[in-house]
């Protein structure tokens, strides 16, 4: 099968695509501007990871595969027993397979739908958030490609003072080896509202050469709370570039619980802007590298508002010949008095060939603040292994125990049971 | 079931190219408790670590058979599964794994798939043995040795010994850092294990543990060898008179390994 480059997707193609989706004019205009930028802008440059040999731009835009009407088994396993009856979005190869909200949620005026529907039915509201203040179209070539060709995703809007009790669940399942995964998620929580969103990325393409270009934008209005859980588990045949970005207003709170567990080369950038006074964010991530996988993880918090608080906790395990860069960045801007930023990055390497690099960075332009960081990178302790093995535990099992022990404290701190459960499953499979 | 047997012949062990054990012979059978005594630096702990397969120690010569099988052909976990146990002088701390989970993994590692110990039975056994060792039940749910005091770690080693029920156990300075009450508790645990199917090698440089666990045989180690063997009375003489008389008897100037006199 031939693989087309993104530049085969010209103005004419994008116009027709947008028209076929009945998209509003603003979105077509944005796509066309992005298409031009995609040909001018440079690629992003993740710190300390060379991506010039990675394929992030060549993929089929639309999957030629037809989805069945039934949910694939892997998806069913993720949803659990009662999931299908609840607030659920399932997208397979970019095509919406399920989209359901409970009556209760609809009655509260909450929107939880796929991006295709959001563009058609909630165009004005979508325009307010889509690639405006979160991730910009013109940041680099990949954000431009994303905007030009974004295919599907989720749009969540929670009106003022509405508290959504049950978590909203989304599953992005990909089993097309050629098609790109261009997914966009928006979580917009208006003043004093609260919502929990949990997403799972899952693909089966161990072979092949496909691309995921994912953008999530989270907006927590004044006094709002957003809990965002994600477990990324895209297969080896997929190269990923993932932005998850949040903006927290006055006294708003954004909690990230991220399992960054792809099998392919991945750059994953999680950034939160604490815009309002008294805003708060907490980022917890669990990461594993295996095989000859190369990854770059950014956890970044910008403190703009006074008395803002930002916490980062990252634990990563590198197996085999995997290598990963962990960049933790706390930036306290001038004027963000009484702010507090804390971060911890810990990396455990299981083999001689594994590489892990933790870079905690504090950038502080204000005197009246507190900040701290801790980082450690180390190999598995051979004496610890000896101790466990001396009780009859095999080397593989001993390593498994040590990995669980290393990641467990972060997993246990995750704010969502479903994320915890899924993390344990994926970790178990990866460390076996 | 045949009586357990550990036979060490002409063992030589080096660490970083320095020879520590210099031709050691010893045989331990089920039902026997042996004690190896000797001043610091004579190679006692090296012997125990090398037998278990510690990665830092290199066996350069000699044979060790365990129930007739070549011990050095086995990986560390295989030695353990064959029935060898080492209570370590400095047990590792492993974060994130509870004591109970670890013990269950260790017990189940010896069992066939589908024959794992039932949770109820495991808990019953664990409770019983922790009570005997006067350990607070909270220890089961604490991370393995993490934040344990020296004495707590030693009790935890004996707890593992009792739960795993090996054929031959080596206790490496299990008495160091223990007060007299803790020492009695540890001795109680070991005495509980005494039976014809269990052999034990106690490594110590104090006689006081042997007041509570009476050994069948006592060996004195100097310069990487066993230089004298006897019954329990030998330990008592060492306690009373120290090691100088042995050095004199054998014409040894400095008992430690690799020290020039």
Notes on the structure:
- The complex is a heterodimer of chains A (432) and B (261).
- Chain A is of the alpha/beta class and 432 residues long.
- Chain A has one domain (6-380).
- Helices cover 23% and strands 38% of the residues of chain A.
- Chain A has a 10-stranded mixed β-sheet, with helices on one face. Chain A has a 9-stranded mixed β-sheet with strand order 3-4-6-8-10-12-14-16-18.
- Chain A is globular.
- By secondary structure, chain B is of the alpha/beta class.
- Chain B has a single domain, classed as 3-Layer(aba) Sandwich (Rossmann fold), CATH 3.40.50.300.
- In chain B, the strands form 2 sheets. A 6-stranded mixed β-sheet of chain B has the order 6-7-8-3-9-10, sandwiched between helices.
- In chain B, a hairpin with a 2-residue loop joins strand 9 (217-222) and strand 10.
- The longest helix of chain B is centred in the middle third of the chain and has 15 residues, at 150-164.
- Chain B is globular.
- The N and C termini of chain B lie far apart (49 Å).
- The model of chain B has no long low-confidence stretch (mean pLDDT 93).
Order of strands across the widest beta sheet of chain A?
A: 2-1-5-7-9-11-13-15-17-19
Which segments of chain B are poorly predicted (pLDDT under 50) over 5 or more consecutive residues? Answer: none
Task: State which percent range the strand residues of chain B make up.
Answer: 25-35%
Helices of chain A, by number, come to 10
CATH class division of chain B: Alpha Beta
CATH superfamily of chain B: P-loop containing nucleotide triphosphate hydrolases
Total count of strands of chain B: 10
- Determine the mean pLDDT of chain A: 94
Strand content of chain A: 35-45%
Radius of gyration of chain B: 18 Å
């Amino acid at each position: 099968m031939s693989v087309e480059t993104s530049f085969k997707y010209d103005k004419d193609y994008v116009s027709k695509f947008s028209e076929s989706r009945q998209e509003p004019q603003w979105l077509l205009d944005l796509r066309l501007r992005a298409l031009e930028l995609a040909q001018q802008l440079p690629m992003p440059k993740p710190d300390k990871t060379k991506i010039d040999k990675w394929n992030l731009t060549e993929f089929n835009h639309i999957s030629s595969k037809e989805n069945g009407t039934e949910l694939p088994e892997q998806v069913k396993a993720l949803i659990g027993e009662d999931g299908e009856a609840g607030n659920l979005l399932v997208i397979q190869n970019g095509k919406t397979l399920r989209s359901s909200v409970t009556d209760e949620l609809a009655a509260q005026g909450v929107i939880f739908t796929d991006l295709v529907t959001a563009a058609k039915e909630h165009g004005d509201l979508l325009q307010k958030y889509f690639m405006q203040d979160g991730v910009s179209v013109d940041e680099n070539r990949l954000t431009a490609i994303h905007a030009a060709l974004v295919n599907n995703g989720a749009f969540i809007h929670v009106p003022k003072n509405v508290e959504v009790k049950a978590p909203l669940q989304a599953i992005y399942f990909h089993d097309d080896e050629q098609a790109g995964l261009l997914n966009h998620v928006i979580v917009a929580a208006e003043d004093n509202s609260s919502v929990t969103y949990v997403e799972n990325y899952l693909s089966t393409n161990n072979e092949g050469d496909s691309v995921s270009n994912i953008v999530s934008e989270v907006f927590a209005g004044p006094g709002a709370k957003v809990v965002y859980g994600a477990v990324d588990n895209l297969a080896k045949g997929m190269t990923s570039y993932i932005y998850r970005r949040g903006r927290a207003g006055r006294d708003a709170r954004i909690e990230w619980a991220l399992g960054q567990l792809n099998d392919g080369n991945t750059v994953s950038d999680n950034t939160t802007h604490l815009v309002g006074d008294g805003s708060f964010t907490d980022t917890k991530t669990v990461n594993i590298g295996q095989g000859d996988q190369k990854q770059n993880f950014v956890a970044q918090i910008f403190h703009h508002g006074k008395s803002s608080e930002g916490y980062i906790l990252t634990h990563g395990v590198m197996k085999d010949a995997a290598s990963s860069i962990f960049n933790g960045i706390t930036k306290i801007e001038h004027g963000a008095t009484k702010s507090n930023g804390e971060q911890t990055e810990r990396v455990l390497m299981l083999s001689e060939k594994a590489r892990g690099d933790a870079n905690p960075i504090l950038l502080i332009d204000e005197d009246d603040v507190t900040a701290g960081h801790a980082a450690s990178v180390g190999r598995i302790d051979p004496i610890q292994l000896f101790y466990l093995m001396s009780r009859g535990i095999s080397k593989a099992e001993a390593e498994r125990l040590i990995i669980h022990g290393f990641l467990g404290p972060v997993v246990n701190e995750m704010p969502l049971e479903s994320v915890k459960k899924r993390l344990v499953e994926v970790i178990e499979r990866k460390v076996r | 079931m045949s009586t357990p047997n550990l036979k060490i012949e002409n063992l030589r062990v080096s660490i970083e190219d320095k020879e520590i054990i210099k031709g050691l012979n010893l045989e331990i059978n089920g039902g026997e408790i042996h004690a190896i005594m000797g001043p610091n630096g004579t190679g006692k702990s090296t012997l125990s670590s090398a037998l278990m397969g510690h990665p830092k120690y290199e066996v350069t010569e000699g044979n060790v058979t365990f129930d007739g099988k070549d011990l050095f052909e086995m990986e560390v976990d295989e030695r353990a599964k064959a029935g060898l146990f080492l209570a370590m002088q400095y047990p590792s701390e492993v974060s994130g794994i509870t004591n109970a989970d670890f013990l269950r993994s260790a017990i189940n590692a010896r069992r066939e798939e589908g024959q794992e110990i039932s949770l109820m039975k495991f808990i019953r056994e664990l409770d019983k043995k922790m009570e005997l060792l006067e350990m607070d039940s909270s220890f089961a749910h604490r991370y393995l040795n993490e934040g344990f005091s020296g004495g707590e770690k030693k009790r935890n080693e004996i707890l593992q010994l009792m739960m795993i029920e090996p054929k031959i156990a080596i206790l490496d300075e299990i008495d160091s850092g223990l007060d007299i009450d803790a020492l009695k508790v540890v001795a109680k645990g070991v005495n509980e294990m005494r039976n014809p199917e269990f052999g034990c090698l106690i490594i110590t440089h104090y006689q006081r543990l042997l007041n509570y666990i009476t050994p069948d045989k006592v060996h004195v180690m100097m310069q990487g060898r066993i230089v004298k063997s006897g019954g329990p009375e030998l330990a008592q003489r060492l306690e009373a008179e120290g090691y100088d008389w042995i050095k004199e008897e054998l014409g040894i100037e400095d008992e430690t390994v690799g020290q020039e006199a």
